[in-house]
Amino acid sequence: MVDTVLLAVGPGDEDRSERLAEAVLTVAQPADATVVLVHVFTSSEYDEVLERLEFDRTLEEIDPDVVAARHSTIRELQTVFDEHDIDYEIRGAVGDHGQSIVDLAASTDADRVVVGGRRRSPTGKAVFGSTAQQVLLSAPCPVTFVRSDDSTPGH
């Protein structure tokens, strides 16, 4: 039985948010599972986002969950899950993308992880990308990989 689905999104997932939502709905909806929407930032990405979104850095430490909730792809997915009456929570983390996703999958007791990636060149097809590959190899549960819609060979 699937109780928790962790959906990890990042800056490159705007083009596949609909496909990511479909993959999650396929798993979560029949099981009435909770979805954990996750955005992981490296330290430099986090600092850049805080500046771009004009967070007041003089306040106490800014919660990564709050920053993640302002990400456009997270907001798009919230709308879809609200329309389908799916329970979700939003989590943000700062650290290595792959390891942070794996750690969050373990700490949330996820039954499934959904992660996106891009189509690779013919020589790179065996490698999904460092983040997706790390999650596929290290997650404590099954992982669904959602490829980008880019149908141009070599991209």
Automatic annotation (TrEMBL):
Q: Which residues are in the UspA domain?
A: 1-147
**InterPro entries cross-referenced by the UniProt entry:** Rossmann-like_a/b/a_fold, Universal_stress_UspA, UspA
Pfam families, from UniProt? Usp (PF00582)
Q: Which family does it belong to?
A: Belongs to the universal stress protein A family.
Q: What is this protein called?
A: UspA domain-containing protein
Lineage summary:
Archaea, Methanobacteriati, Methanobacteriota, Stenosarchaea group, Halobacteria
